[in-house]
Each structure stands twice: as C-alpha cells, then as structure tokens.
Design a protein that fits this description.
Blueprint (H helix, E strand, L loop, with lengths): L10 H8 L16 H8 L9 H14 L4 E5 L11 H4 L15 H6 L11 H5 L9 E5 L4 H9 L1 H10 L1 H23 L4 E7 L12 H21 L3 E5 L8 H8 L3 E3 L8 H8 L4 E3 L4 H6 L2 H15 L4 E2 L12 H13 L1
Parallel strand pairs: 1-2, 2-3, 3-4, 4-5, 5-6, 6-7
Length: 344
C-alpha cells in the first residue's frame, strides 16, 4: 500500500539541507528510480509514455506522490546529447574496459563530438505547469567527466594513455569537460530547476579509480567550473560519486565546493559515520546501503531510517538510498525507507 504523503511539497526544505541547516521536517532524496516503481505509484505503465513530456510528467507524479520536494529529470529526456555509443546504450551494464572509440590523436579528431546545446531545454520550463506547488526540478547529466572519458577510451587503455600520452589525455578530458560545463550552464539557468546532480564516479571500493593527483589535474578543474556555473545561477550542486573518495574529500569540500555528497556503501563507509565526520562541511543526502535495502526486511530498513534521522536531527541530511532504486529492490523495502520520514 502506498503511504499517503504527509507533508506538502516545499523545495525550500531540501534547500535547507543543502545549506547544511535543519529543515522543518524530514526530507527525502533519491537520484533515480526504476520504471516499475514509477508505474506502481502512478498506477499506469511508465513504458506507455511515448513523448519526453509524458515521461517527465510521470516522473514528477511519482516524486510528488512518494513525498519528495522535487523531481529528478535525467538529461536523456531533454538533453539531446550523449558521449555513449549506440551499442553501449543497448546494454544493461557496460564493462569499463569497453570503448576504445578514441585510441589516438587521429580518432580523437575524427570523433563526432556531441553538441550540448542541441537539447530541448525549453521543455524544462514548459513542464512548470506539471510541477505541484512547492516543487522544483533536479537535473542530472549524461554521465560525468571521468565516466565519459572512460567510456570513450576504455579503462585499461586510459591508464596507459595517462602515462604515455599526457597531451592527448588532457585533450580528451577537456573536450568532454567543456561540453558538460555548457550543459550545466544552460540547465542551471532554467527557472524550474532548483539543483543539479553532478554525476561522476571516481572510486573503487578501496581507492580512487585514477591517482588523486591525476583527478586534481584532469578532472577537478572542470568540476570546479561546473560548480561555479551552477552557483552563479543561484542553484545547488550535488555530487553523486561512487567509490572510496577519502583521499579527495578535502578537495571536494574546499576546492570544488559541492553543496552535498551522494552515493554511499556500508563496505566503504556507512552514511552514519560519514555524516558525523563531514556534515559540518558538506550536506549528506541518501546513504541507506543498496545491498541492505535489497536484502534486508522492511522492519530492519524502517528501524535504520528512524535511527539515522534521530542521529542527524535532520541537520544537513536527507533520507534516501545510498545510490538509487533499481528494479531488484523490493517495493515493500522502498516503502519502508520512505515511511521512516513520515514517522519522524
């Protein structure tokens, strides 16, 4: 049974979390959810939505019904550009060693670089009539800087290229980064948008994917520009990055100046521990471990949700999963998680 929404939508409540303040009541946060869950909440098949407008309308409906103060809209519904190859788009998962679209200077120059300005950005403003009172849109990009470079080059090939051809490596990062920057500049200027998710996975379970000094040299300068562009337009920048980022968290906070961190795994650091260590410097959103959310029972999930809300006192924290809600998460477990906010 779908729980009845307890609080009216109010993006300002999420904004208070992102400013590391204490909202008036619990706030929910989710990066994205599966189509089946959207269908379940809306009582109609999400797959039947044929146009971007219909899909965005259904996404907004889900986020409002389930208690959020915003709706996350992936760029594929309006953005018009992607670095991913057509073959990769057809797969549920893609190996980090696939790619090799760019192998040298010649293939770099011949690559058909996408235009980030081709998207239907007016659609975001046009959907204002679909937003319930108090809601805003939260936008995510077509992958991140390191993610897209890895997709184009292949992870193993990239590792060699970083040492064997520094000039080409930088050129690829700059080509991707400049386009993502333009995307975020455009989206953050849209009036219906309240925050943007900068989604770029940087780590494995025990360390960053490439050495921290290379992240600082090739990846972080573009992220700094992206965050500055988002802040210039008066919006919030939320980092979604998987993996162990302990070695670069000071950079995330001090240099890049993200407003919030998302994506957590208990095997790396439980969100409760991360909040205690970092909430004075960066907001914490989500965090309920995806494996726990999948394998646990509703009672366990509800109890953990209650405990983290009690621990944080709601300050600089929004409740949600550590990553997202894929199709294998039991619906009753997801319902238990969001119910914790309604009980507080």
């Amino acid at each position: 049974m779908i729980p009845k929404r307890k609080y009216p939508a109010d993006f300002e409540q999420l904004a208070r979390v992102l400013r590391r303040e204490t909202p008036d009541r619990p706030v929910l946060f989710e990066y994205f959810v599966n189509a089946g869950l959207i269908s379940f909440f809306n009582d109609r098949p999400f797959e039947a939505a044929e146009t971007p407008e219909q899909k965005i309308r259904d996404i907004i409906g889900f986020f409002h019904t389930s208690g959020y103060d915003y709706a996350t809209i992936p760029s594929r519904y309006f953005g018009g550009f992607s670095f991913t190859t057509a073959d990769q788009e057809k797969k549920a998962t893609v190996s980090q060693n696939e790619g090799s679209v760019i192998t040298d200077r010649n293939t770099f120059e011949k690559y058909n670089w996408p235009n980030p300005e081709q998207g239907d950005f007016e659609l975001l403003d046009n959907m204002a009539t679909e937003l319930k009172d108090g809601m805003k849109l939260v936008i995510s990009a077509p992958g991140g800087l390191l993610e897209n470079v890895t997709s184009l080059v292949g992870f193993e090939n990239l590792c060699f290229m970083l040492y064997e051809d520094e000039e080409l490596s930088k050129a690829i990062f700059d080509a991707v980064g400049s386009r993502l920057l333009r995307f975020y500049e455009t989206c953050s200027s849209v009036s219906t948008v309240g925050a943007l998710i900068v989604n770029d996975d940087w780590g494995f379970k025990t360390q960053t994917m490439i050495p921290p000094e290379m992240l600082c040299e090739l990846v972080f300068p573009w992220h700094k520009k992206i965050v500055e562009a988002i802040h210039h337009n008066g919006k919030f920048a939320i980092l979604h990055s998987c993996g162990n980022l302990e070695a670069v968290m000071d950079d995330v906070v001090n240099e890049l100046k993200f407003d919030a961190k998302h994506s957590f795994e208990d095997a790396i650091i439980p969100v409760e521990d991360f909040w205690q260590q970092w909430h004075g410097r960066i907001a914490v959103v989500g965090g309920i471990d995806l494996d726990f959310l999948t394998r646990g029972n509703p009672e366990e999930i509800l109890k953990r949700g209650h405990k983290i809300l009690e621990l944080t006192g709601l300050k600089a924290y929004a409740l949600g999963s550590g990553n997202s809600i894929p199709g294998y998460v039991p619906v009753e477990n997801y319902l238990a998680m969001i119910s914790a906010a309604g009980d507080f």
